[in-house]
Task: inverse folding
């Protein structure tokens, strides 16, 4: 035990007897640590499944003209492999690690919304099962992990596979958004006193930036999935070129999510490396500010470069130039990080533990992946190697050589904290070298195959010179990689059974999670010290030495934000909903301008009647405002009255909208008729759905108010529902202006 | 679902921050109250996924999901109220 950990003796009460037992103790758990571990186990199971799919793919490609798998089965396998690894493994595994660690690192006893935390986990599990149920329901999705239209549209993907793909990702996407809101609110509201934003552990810092990025990107995917589903299930036309839709719009939407997604899968890995390298170099991180700021820069830039995935579409020279330059820019903050990690090791007392070996390998592998990534920004190179094995190699150097290596570094580093046992270092080193060799044998040679012109996503290939040999080498590497996973599993099992007890702080690390027993008690901490710097345990060990003048911040408890957690959570949720509606609105604007839906709109819409509807909704915001004022004045009866009026006005709006829909349907204007119907019914339909949810929430508030549950002067429940209702009203004002008023003038 | 609504592992709400000798400036970790175990989130997640599943199978499945989600939401609200 380090002195810093010793200072905590008595500050953490012994573990209380846990409620419940057996399976119930786990599935009903709201403890962030148990939920984090369940995330890690679930995602590891999916990792094994996705790995088996990869082995089948590599076995098929081991020799030319192989017939082990047919093209249809092969299409399903590479689609499920990519989807599984991205949506069910990498992203949620990092979220799971964050769920476990963030409260501990900031000195909190749990996450901000424990129930929502559990909900996120179970949405991942059930969403993943829903996706895999597609195998039993007529065929798994087979249009690739990015489901390009029109291949993913009904005429070309006739089974329910793509439907299950979209629905499964919607379920997991809702969970991911909820988890991100939870992590942001936790970091902003539950930090230990003195832990200013500039003193956050870098893993937590990167989780924060990553969560913000998720809130910007995931709703884009969710909106796209909804539109694809409407196309497929209701014969709409968003992405169907044969009826005026745009397949390129799907690409824009998908990559507007997909490129930030790459960084969503990498930023927390940067955080792991930023914890592991300093501890095993016995030095604090070099250039904390640069590492932290470059993370924010990467997140911002990642939102602006999506179309570098679309150079082959033919976007035009100006667009190509813009996205090429923007993509090159991302290499700068990423390079800064690599330099900082190297500088941290420079002159340090490096300990080559398994965790450190994985971190070092991460540096090399991720840099290779980064450099090949930069090569795509040269548009002619991109044209040449697009959709070849060069892309496959690049992607795996980023996601396996980068994120998976970092994840293994993190597992070897934090496993002792999670379980109380050390992983065996000797087995760990076997695991590391097998992984390192297997990975490079598998993927390095794929660069050459790509440059030689071997396309990705073809189930077999002719016996061209070297192709068979190179593919066989790649397949042998894949089996070596699979064997390394078995070694890892063996190490975990052996260590759980007979691993050396870890103690509180086996690595002599500096962040607060190492101050608790291993594994930590359910409530983590009773007391937390004032945080004086970026290495709180080091500060406790050296009370006589002035903390370095770093990290700014005062000792005030108000390292935390002043916004209450419920309000902050709702504001973040509204932000994601705003992005969701923005995508639907953009689709309307795009088609309204390009396909002259305005002619239809002007003919069939009645802006006057809609104006009455609009007044009802605006009026409901006013009455809800007065309801809040009544609560402040401790007049619960008046609150109930204003809530009733608000509900009545909201219901009137819905009735009015329902009548308009009926009139349109009678006039043969439906979602499947043309692009106007498609965009109009989707946009107003989702808004109506939000109004309906708002009405249900208002009805709950009304019931509670009627039985005197709101004595005042404040109520978090009333406040968050009010915020939501105002948001729904604001969205309608935009929709009214966009659809109805534009129809008048256009 | 757990009946036990006790506060787990820590200080009662509103308790002053203790500062034992040698730990001046130390404060109680947040949040002060931790909720008990509950099955409400798993039911809610199942409800959402059934609701989605019903889109490609049968409205009955979607209906069952909506009912499950509604019941879970009510349970969720009830637990939050009891914790106040």
Result:
């Amino acid at each position: 035990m380090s002195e810093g950990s010793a200072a905590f003796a008595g500050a953490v009460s012994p573990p209380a007897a846990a409620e419940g037992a057996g399976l119930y103790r786990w599935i009903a758990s709201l403890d962030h640590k148990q939920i984090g571990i369940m995330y890690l186990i679930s995602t590891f199971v999916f990792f094994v499944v996705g790995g088996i799919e990869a082995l089948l793919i590599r076995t098929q490609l081991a020799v030319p003209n192989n017939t082990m798998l047919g093209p249809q089965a092969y299409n399903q396998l590479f689609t499920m492999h990519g989807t599984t690894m991205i949506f069910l493994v990498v992203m949620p595994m990092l979220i799971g690690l964050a769920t476990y660690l963030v409260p501990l690192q900031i000195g909190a006893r749990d996450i901000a919304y424990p129930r929502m935390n559990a909900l996120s986990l179970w949405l991942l599990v059930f969403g993943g099962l829903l996706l895999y149920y597609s195998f039993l329901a007529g065929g798994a999705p087979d249009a690739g992990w990015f489901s390009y239209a029109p291949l993913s549209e009904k005429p070309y993907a006739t089974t329910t596979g793509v439907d299950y793909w979209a629905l499964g990702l919607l379920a997991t996407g809702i969970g991911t958004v909820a988890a991100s809101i939870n992590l942001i609110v936790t970091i902003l509201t539950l930090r230990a006193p003195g832990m200013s934003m500039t003193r956050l552990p870098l893993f937590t810092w990167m989780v924060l930036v990553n969560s913000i990025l998720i809130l910007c990107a995931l709703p884009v995917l969710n909106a796209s999935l909804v539109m694809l589903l409407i196309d497929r299930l209701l014969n709409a036309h968003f992405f169907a070129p044969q009826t005026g839709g745009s397949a390129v719009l799907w690409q824009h939407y998908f990559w507007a999510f997909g490129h930030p997604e790459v960084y969503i899968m990498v930023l927390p890995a940067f955080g792991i490396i930023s914890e592991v390298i300093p501890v095993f170099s016995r030095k604090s991180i070099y250039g904390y500010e640069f590492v932290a700021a470059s993370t924010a820069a990467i997140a911002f830039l990642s939102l602006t470069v999506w179309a570098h995935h679309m150079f082959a579409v033919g976007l035009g020279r100006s667009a190509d130039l813009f996205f090429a330059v923007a993509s090159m820019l991302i290499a700068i903050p990423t390079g800064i990080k690599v330099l900082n990690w190297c500088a941290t090791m420079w002159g340090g007392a490096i300990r080559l533990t398994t965790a450190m070996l994985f971190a070092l390998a991460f540096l090399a592998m991720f840099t290779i992946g980064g450099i090949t990534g930069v090569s795509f920004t040269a548009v002619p190179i991109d044209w040449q190697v697009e959709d070849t094995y060069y892309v496959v190699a690049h992607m795996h150097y980023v996601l396996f050589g980068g994120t998976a290596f970092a994840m293994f570094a993190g597992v070897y580093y934090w496993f002792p904290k999670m379980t109380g046992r050390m992983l065996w270092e000797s087995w760990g080193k076997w695991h590391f070298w097998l992984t390192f060799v297997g990975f490079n044998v598998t993927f390095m040679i794929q660069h050459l195959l790509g440059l030689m012109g071997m396309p990705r996503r073809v189930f077999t290939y002719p016996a061209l010179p070297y192709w068979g040999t190179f593919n066989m080498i790649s397949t042998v590497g894949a089996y070596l990689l699979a064997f390394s996973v078995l070694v890892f599993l063996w190490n975990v099992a052996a260590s759980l059974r007979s691993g050396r007890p870890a103690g509180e702080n086996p690595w002599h690390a500096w962040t607060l999670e190492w101050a608790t027993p291993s594994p930590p008690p359910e409530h983590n901490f009773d007391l937390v010290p004032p945080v004086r710097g970026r290495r709180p345990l080091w500060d406790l060990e050296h009370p006589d030495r002035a903390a370095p003048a770093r990290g700014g911040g005062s000792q005030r408890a108000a390292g935390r934000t002043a916004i209450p957690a419920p309000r902050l959570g709702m504001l973040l949720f509204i932000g994601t909903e705003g992005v969701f509606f923005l995508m639907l609105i953009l689709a309307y604007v795009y088609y309204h301008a390009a396909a002259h839906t305005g002619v239809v709109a002007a003919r069939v819409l009645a802006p006057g009647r809609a104006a009455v509807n609009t007044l009802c909704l605006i009026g409901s915001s006013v009455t809800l405002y007065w309801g809040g004022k009544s609560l402040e004045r401790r007049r619960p009866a008046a609150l109930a009255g204003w809530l009733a009026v608000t509900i009545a006005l909201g219901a009137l709006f819905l009735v009015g909208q329902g009548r308009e829909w009926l009139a349109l349907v009678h006039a043969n204007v439906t979602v499947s008729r043309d692009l106007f119907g498609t965009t109009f019914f989707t946009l107003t339909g989702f808004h109506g759905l939000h109004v309906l949810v708002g009405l249900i929430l208002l009805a709950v508030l009304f019931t509670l108010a009627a039985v005197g549950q709101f004595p005042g002067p404040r109520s978090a429940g009333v406040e968050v529902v009010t915020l939501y209702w105002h948001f729904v009203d604001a969205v309608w004002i935009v929709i009214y202006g966009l659809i109805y008023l534009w129809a008048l003038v256009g | 679902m757990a009946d036990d609504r006790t506060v787990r592992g820590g200080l009662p709400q509103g308790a002053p921050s203790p500062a034992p000798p040698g730990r001046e400036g130390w404060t109680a970790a947040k949040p002060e109250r931790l909720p008990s175990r509950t099955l409400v989130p798993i039911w809610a997640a199942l409800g959402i996924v059934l609701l989605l599943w019903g889109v490609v199978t049968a409205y009955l499945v979607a209906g069952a999901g909506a009912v499950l989600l509604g019941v879970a939401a009510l349970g969720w609200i009830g637990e939050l109220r009891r914790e106040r």
Q: What stands out?
A: The helical segments of chain B are 40-56, 59-83.
